[in-house]
Amino acid sequence: MQKFNPAFSGSDVKKYFLKKNLKKDLPSSIVVFLVALPLCLGIALASGAPLFAGLITGIIGGIVVASCSGSQLSVSGPAAGLTVIVLGAITSLGSYPTFLLAVVLAGVFQLILGLVKAGTIGNYFPSSVIEGMLAAIGLILILKQLPHALGVDTDFTGDEGFFQQDHENTFSAITAAISHFSLGAVVISVLSVAILVIWPKFQKLAIVPAPLLVVTLGVLGTLFFAGTDHPLRADQMVKIPVVNGFDEFARLFTLPDFSQLANKNVYIVALTIAIVASLETLLSIEAIDKIDPIKRITPTNRELISQGIGNITSGMVGGLPMTSVIVRSSANVNAGGRTKMSAIFHGIWLLLSLLFIPGLINMIPLSCLAAILLVTGYKLTRISLFKHMYHKGWDQFVPFVVTVVAVLFTDLLKGVAIGMLVSVFYLLRTNMRNPFFYRIAKEGDKKNIRIKLAEEVSFLNKAAIQVLLTDIPKETNVIIDGSNARYIDPDVLETIYNYKHNAYTKGIVVTLENIQKHYSVPKLNIKVEEDINKL
């Protein structure tokens, strides 16, 4: 392995790392491209939009958003979580060009959210909820892709909801697939999973990416079964539009209808898309940062700005609204992606496939792509993750499991919201138990109680302190010591002073030590502030 030479110039260092990363990013980009391709088409179909709209959204998400984003592993594109919103918006607004105007305005709103630093909301999602979301996505990938692996499913949208657009749910789709499986699809998917599991174990052979080998196997399998009694049907294959010439390609684009700028319904749709897309993006970014092998942290405000630019661009040329998508991003991580070049290349492959090799792409069976996602899902929801969360304690394990179940049976945003509520309950429970400590000492016939407050006493501690003070027996000397406290919430201060004022009615003498009338929010250490300002 080449050693880093400190005498290298800046350009030499850049070339060295670029070459090193490209060995991983190029193969990973092909995997992401193959995963994204059918999802882009399926989401466009489920949204009631032209198939080309799904592809152009994936292309822009790969090339434009990834170029602007600070995330090295996130992959953006049309999101299954927005299909219901998009389908309803196209219907309610009356025309697709009017809907495109709403997409452009949604991008503008996201730019504003990024500029006012609303991306920091992503920092308040507990790790147990994010881990639960990842595990749920893994389970969803496995359950949703099983029908495709068996060759029986007409709904390849990759939707995260329990109820599907084809009127099936997660489990009924699997039951139907088992009853009507396709032998050719099953053989291809089983062999594909075997290759994905076994091939990377041979280091000398692993120079050829396993997913690329799987796709090659899929094409050969399609040709083989075409000459048997079990050929693969057209609905079991990837489908992209076949474009004959530049003029036909240019006619696929649609411009937004700016004459509808005065239509208030356009702004309602735009705001809805902006909020939901931003939340999904922040959740996805938080999750991808957790599974990044290098543990890099994405600047969330910059991500919102990048998504805004992407949605403005997408709306201007006829595309769908986009988000950072956890399925494609996790496939990128598990395929070995290292930098944003993987996402950018995946967008380029989508564009080139549309222009030059639609016939070859349409020979890829969905069952081999399902195998790639099955293995990705297993890596996200491995048993060791559940064991790890269990050993971290009930306050981590319960929100984790609740999030998994909620996401599995509802959808991404609702499931995370339910997980957050459970996590907040445990947060309140913990704060109620740990706001202070106290010591009881007897002096004659009276008891002396010293209550020493913690360093930070927030409004979450108010209920616990009220309970403790209420339970103090009559004829007691109480000392409330705030010598350790850097900050006491005004509500808690009011509770303490009210107690001191009324305690004499019970024969209780209250003494306050080192407790101020007012506390300001603690500032950063001066030296830390100076260092930040220098940056």
UniProtKB/TrEMBL annotation:
InterPro entries: SLC26A/SulP_dom, SLC26A/SulP_fam. Residues 22-391 form the SLC26A/SulP transporter domain. Keywords: Membrane, Transmembrane, Transmembrane helix. The chain crosses the membrane at residues 26-45, 51-68, 75-93, 99-116, 123-143, 177-199, 206-227, 266-288, 348-377, 397-428. Pfam families: Sulfate_transp. It is found in: Membrane. The keyword Transmembrane applies. It comes from the Bacteria. It is a multi-pass membrane protein. Its main location: membrane. This is SulP family inorganic anion transporter. It comes from Pedobacter vanadiisoli.
